[in-house]
Amino acid sequence: MKHHTLSCILGLACSSMALGQVDPPLIPQPERLEWTQGRFDLTGTTIAIYKLELRDEAEFLQAGLRSVGIDADIEQVHRGMGKVVALGLAPNKGLKPEGYELTIVPEGAGLYGTDEAGVFRGIQTFLQLLPPPGTASPAVPCAMISDQPRFGWRGMHLDVCRHFMPADFIKKYIDLLARYKMNTFHWHLTDDQGWRIEIKRYPRLTEVGAWRNGSMVGHYRDRQYDTLHYGGFYTQEEVKDIVAYAAKRHITVVPEIEMPGHAMAALAAYPELSCTGGPFDVERGWGVFDDVFCAGNDSVFAMLENVLTEVMTLFPGQYIHIGGDECPKERWKTCTKCQERMKANGLKDEHELQSHFIQRMEKFVNASGRKIIGWDEILEGGLAPNAAVMSWRGTEGGIAAAKQKHNVVMTPGSHCYFDHYQGDPAQEPLAIGGHTTVQKVYSFEPIPSELTAEEGQYILGAQGNVWTEYINTPEHVEYMAVPRMLALAEVLWSPKEKRNEKDFIARLLQEFPRLEAMGVNASKSIYQVETTIVRGNEPGRLTVGLSSPLGLDLMYTITRPPYSEQGRLGRYSQPLTIDADCEVQGFTMNNGSTGPIARKRFDFNWATAQAITCNPLPNERYDDGGPLTLVDGIHAGERRVNYEWLGWRSDVTITVHLSLGKMLTHVGIGALEEHSSWIHLPEQVVISTSLDGKTFAVQGTVKPEKDAQGNVHLGIDLKEVGAAAVRFEVKNTVRIPAGMAGAGNPAWLFLDEIEVR
Ligand code: ACM
Ligand code: ZN
């Protein structure tokens, strides 16, 4: 039976809701802000510029004012007092680049930037002060603002290779960055699944490399493909247009040309640049592929240098991103050219060969007056002398690079990967995994505590990454990027001492209707209800707590099997105690509107809510809910990586004590296999039982087997064995085998619900 949603049952519409109004919702929060008396009515105002160079900035202000019905002329000279917004430069006020001072009084406003970028950032502040479109009298509140960025690299990334995004959308994305004072757009232009930038000297890169014959559909683990011819690329004219569009908004575009790995699209076009000679297809699926640019072939370097020459002509910024991540070394190990190069240069392993590759490219880029930046794998085998590091596999790479006095951009998967789930996976569109809420992004601190103040100076800033394996449309990009980008924008711009989650959320809720008016498909996952499950005061009972991160009133239902009739609706006031199969639903109520519904289905067995120990405890990256997660009655769905699964990088022994002795017919535990995420099935599980909870007798050893749905349950049937405790000794795979993602690293072991019957 399908559930009717409660909103239907209640006849209520799902809508955003207004919490208490705060002062105009500035995001990011300025460094210094004082609201002063009165309002400046914009009717009949003029924009005055003191410098011709500020004409572009003035036009942005003019366009913004037009959106609230104000037609303001731009005049180059200040007419004196009167209704005017004056724009000027004031480089000597002690503010950093991009800083500005904005003073608004009832008669007018003055905006002075350290530089033109500062004036532009200040205009964004001014525009955020405007009332929502359609307000009767357009006025802004009076204020004195002095503002400057905390970090110089405030970035957003976009992968246009896994799914292509049209040029018009790239502009809309840049507009979004601009509104929140971000200043760097990292454009991921080449990868295994598509080469997306026209290179005149190598036309096959886009003739062949920009197109693939099918794409993965559903999650990676299902290995399903469609057969559609898919692709697209940007002409150099389009690239120039976008770079100029960004420059007007004082946003630098950093192009990424991936090497030596993630190169299948290029190799499909020019297979002679590989170690084996191919042939290759542009990849249809996601992942990491063994064929990469040959590191022993001089024509590879010549080609990449020629490509970068065209790229540097198109992108005037200081940094060129050369990728460098996830490059398998399999082909290099057996390629005579690669091995000869290692010998000739005294390189002791393939990591040093990769380092040699990157250093050679760096020399070329440096000779052209630019710098390289690469993913943190470029640390392996030795960092190129002037390279900046983009730290994505945690912050460790960034810490190591900063200690070596190299510039760093932080983008750890834990806080900055906006392709991760941002709410309950059961309520979200399919994503790669993870769980990164807007609040979690807001809690991110780009400068790790491991660094001294001096080393911390090498942290240029941070950026949010939007990889598009599971994101097919511009609307979905917006959904994943917004509002998490707003949280990151404040982390990167505003002073650390001013960070205040509650205050940020209040401003964010007021920003939602403005985003809607701008046609931005922002995620409202923040309205989701959070569920916490703890053991009840007696074994076999669970206590289910519901909470609204926004502090809204909550309603709930508890529905019992066979789930044909919805349980009675109640107002939530205290945690719910449950001791048998049921589904709990919770949702927010605000001004008569319901928010998204959180659903939890509990299936009880004899292990549910019993005492449990894990030795060792799960890894802190995947320990949500602690050991109870294994006996909380909730079977981890496949989409719930990092949510209902517990993770280890070692063997683990798990013991469940049953409060009442039972005659057992089945004992088992669930495990997950997801090789792309380095998650492997255990080698085996030894299952034991005990009558006294102290001495255990082995009942059997199980090796993993998948059922028809691909789920893995490691269990054994028993013939009525009396027991007061059961034990699982789970043996991890330990090292990821060669040829798989993360080869050579310790595998992750992911376990979930224990069943005892
Ligand atoms: C990355 O996510 N492979 C940089
Ligand atoms: Zn080779």
What is this entry, summarized?
Helices cover 23% and strands 28% of the residues. By secondary structure, the protein is of the alpha/beta class. It starts with 5 loop residues before the first helix and ends with a strand.
Tell me the β content: 25-35%
Mean pLDDT: 93
Q: What helical percentage do the residues reach?
A: 10-25%
Tell me which oligomeric state these chains represent: single chain
Write the layout of secondary structure elements.
Elements (H helix, E strand, L loop, with lengths): L5 H5 L21 E10 L4 E4 L5 H12 L7 E2 L8 E6 L10 E6 L2 E6 L2 H14 L9 E9 L5 E7 L7 H13 L4 E5 L1 E2 L2 E2 L8 H4 L3 E3 L2 E2 L6 E2 L3 E3 L4 H13 L3 E8 L4 H6 L28 H17 L4 E5 L6 H5 L1 H9 L5 H18 L3 E5 L12 E4 L4 H8 L4 E3 L2 H4 L21 H5 L10 H4 L2 E6 L9 H8 L2 H10 L7 H17 L12 E6 L6 E6 L5 E7 L9 E3 L4 E3 L3 E9 L2 E2 L3 E5 L8 E5 L30 E3 L3 E20 L12 E7 L6 E6 L9 E20 L17 E8 L1
Parallel strand pairs: 2-3, 2-4, 4-6, 8-9, 8-21, 9-16, 16-17, 17-18, 18-19, 19-20, 20-21
Antiparallel strand pairs: 1-7, 5-6, 5-7, 10-11, 12-15, 13-14, 22-23, 23-26, 24-25, 24-27, 27-28, 27-29, 30-32, 31-36, 32-35, 32-36, 33-34, 33-35
The structure holds acetamide (ACM) and zinc ion.
Zinc ion binds next to helix 10.
Keyword list:
36 strands; eight-stranded parallel barrel; alpha/beta; disordered N terminus; binds acetamide; 757 residues; seven-stranded mixed beta sheet; globular; binds zinc ion; 18 helices
Description:
By secondary structure, the protein is of the alpha/beta class. The protein contains 18 helices and 36 strands. The strands form eight sheets. The protein has an eight-stranded parallel β-barrel, surrounded by five helices. Strands 1-7-5-6-4-2-3 form a seven-stranded mixed β-sheet. Strand 27 and strand 28 form a beta hairpin. The protein is globular and about 95 Å long. The two termini are 27 Å apart. Bound molecules: acetamide and zinc ion. The site of zinc ion (ZN) has 8 residues, from helix 10.
